[in-house]
Amino acid sequence: MYEDLQGKTAIVTGSSKGIGKAIAERFGKEKMNVVVNYHSDPSGAEETIETIKQNGGQAVAVEADVSSEAGIEALMDTALQQFGTLDVMVNNSGFNGAEAMPHEMSLEDWQKVIDVNVTGTFMGAKAALKHMMKHNIKGNVLNISSVHQQIPRPLNVQYSTSKGGMKLMTETLALNYADKGIRVNALAPGTIATESNDDLQEEEHKQVQLKKIPMKTFGKPEEVAAAAAWLVSEEASYVTGTTLFVDGGMTLYPSQLE
């Protein structure tokens, strides 16, 4: 646990399930105030809130589309109304998109991924940074990227492009605000056992994926959450503009050598 996080306020987008849920729940263990965001899963958001409160934190849920300015404003307004400030912004909401050869991909399929993963992350960061600058808060922005900011993802050019964009967005924002005491970092998970990866239950697909992971096991959402808590704590006070890979060595990609 990180004592400096106690009582601080965080927004975690897309926190009704998966990695976002685990991060929000870990923040509850740190006794933080958490704005839980969901788009279409109110029951999942309520479960997250209940766990946060059981862990010792405070929480409130907000339905919002983070690819819209109105959605981001709703999250910020709630954080300020309920808890008075914002110290940590976690841009976790992400969308994979449909698989397709690039020459057959519709502009709509491309744009939807870019809107959520890139534009949504930018708007979330912008809103948080504006508040932190106005109130001289030495806060944190944490963007949840993917190993696919480094490893191209076949049939998902829109997803790989979005995550590559998040990498340089993170680095550029970190450069712009480092002298203000605001840290901006990213987490890049590998293959994590979440609801969105339920096809890992199929043995054939599972074995194919495991070949790409030197540790020969899938990650747990809680392991990503532990890294998130460290990055936004004072234990990581001299870390900004970096991407921390939580991937069991997947970016080493040994299967490419077989």
Summarize the topology.
Blueprint: E1 9-12, H1 18-29, E2 33-38, H2 42-55, E3 58-63, H3 69-83, E4 88-91, H4 107-134, E5 140-144, H5 157-177, E6 183-189, H6 203-210, H7 221-232, E7 243-246
Parallel strand pairs: 1-2, 1-4, 2-3, 4-5, 5-6, 6-7
Helix pairs in contact: 1-2, 1-7, 3-4, 4-5
N-to-C CA distance: 41 Å
Which fold name is given in CATH as the topology? Rossmann fold
Q: Count helical runs.
A: 7
State the share of residues found in helices, binned by percent: 40-55%
**Total strand segments:** 7
Instruction: Provide the low-confidence segments as ranges.
Output: none
Reading the helices and strands in chain order gives EHEHEHEHEHEHHE
Percent range for β-strand residues: 5-15%
CATH architecture descriptor? 3-Layer(aba) Sandwich
Q: How is the biggest beta sheet arranged?
A: 7 strands, parallel
CATH superfamily: NAD(P)-binding Rossmann-like Domain
The structure class reads alpha/beta
Radius of gyration: 18 Å
CATH domain class name: Alpha Beta
Report on the structure:
The protein has 258 residues and is an alpha/beta fold. It has a single domain (3-247), classed as NAD(P)-binding Rossmann-like Domain (Rossmann fold, 3-Layer(aba) Sandwich). Helix content is 43%, strand content 14%. The chain has helices at 18-29, 42-55, 69-83, 107-134, 157-177, 203-210, 221-232, and strands at 9-12, 33-38, 58-63, 88-91, 140-144, 183-189, 243-246. It is globular, with a radius of gyration of 18 Å. The chain has a seven-stranded parallel beta sheet, sandwiched between helices. The mean pLDDT is 95. Helix 4 links the parallel strand 4 (88-91) and strand 5. This is Dehydrogenase. It holds the Pfam family adh_short_C2.
